[in-house]
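Q: Could you predict the 3D structure of Phosphate acyltransferase?
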Amino acid sequence: MFTYAVDVMGGDLGPRVAFKACKKFLRFRRDVSLTLTVTTEYYQEACSYFSGNPRVRVIQCQSSIEATDKPSQMLRKGQSSTMAVALLEHQQGRAHGVLSIGNTGALMVLARQSMGMLPDLERPALATMLPTRGKPLLMLDLGANLSVDADRLVQFACIGAAWSETLTGQPASVGLLNVGRESGKGTDCVRIADENLSELMPENYQGFQEGDDLYKGELDVLVTDGFAGNITLKASEALSDWLLELFNREFRQHWLMKWFVWLWLPAVRSIERRVSPARHGGALLLGIKGVVVKTHGSSDARTFRYALRYLHEKTRNFDALQLQQRYLNHRRHTASSSDE
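A: Sure. Here are the predicted structure tokens for Phosphate acyltransferase:
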């Protein structure tokens, strides 16, 4: 039986969409139980909503961290918040992983404090798997670190490669996002990171990658700073939504196509399963000693449910010791190469 701590507070649509998602998720996952952290305002409602379900535990908390909170407000709420209590459940071994819809910055800070970091890794990176023409692509960072230096990009490459290799058992191919493939392109930070990665991860590093390389399916890991990563991700999600809407509208409006709905509808649904942002709404905080997943603050019940599924899938395949060893192997290679 897997148990997950779920921070349902802080989303744009309120905690009720999370309640709905959790109930539906549990209906299809008999091997899962959930611990929900809620504020006093929603405690009785949550208890009533899940009444009679022995696989749901609700914890009443003093406060929640909102997306609009300033850093000083986050610090004041601190360990009394729903987010911190959910992380504590994971840290103390009562939960196998954590899902939060709350403030990304606060989640990163509190996860570092509660869970700790892998050795020689300064900050965690927000990462998710993007669907492509070929194999899924692990992209990081997606917004946890808006501005980074070259060494931080190298660290992201190491933890990204380690995560990919832990899941697949195969050497990971790693690329660095840039405005061009030529060595002289990009900022000083990106060029320095490129030089370092070329020397330190020659068996993994595939050089600069441009934006139109994302969906070719040739890479396992793509590294960038959180500023470019977040813009890329959200632009991709918006494009996917628009294309799915366009497909449906064009097929349904054409009088002839309505007669053949039984032919084209399965194809559209197959495309939707592969590219819909709602189905890829979870992102990992890589580098934390544990499994911590963040979902969009604007997630509806469907997106939240798929984020729960993402957490479950990653937790079942997660081997903390193997991940740390693979990461340290990459970093040791880095250190030894630097000494030479």
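Q: Anything worth pointing out?
A: The radius of gyration is 21 Å.
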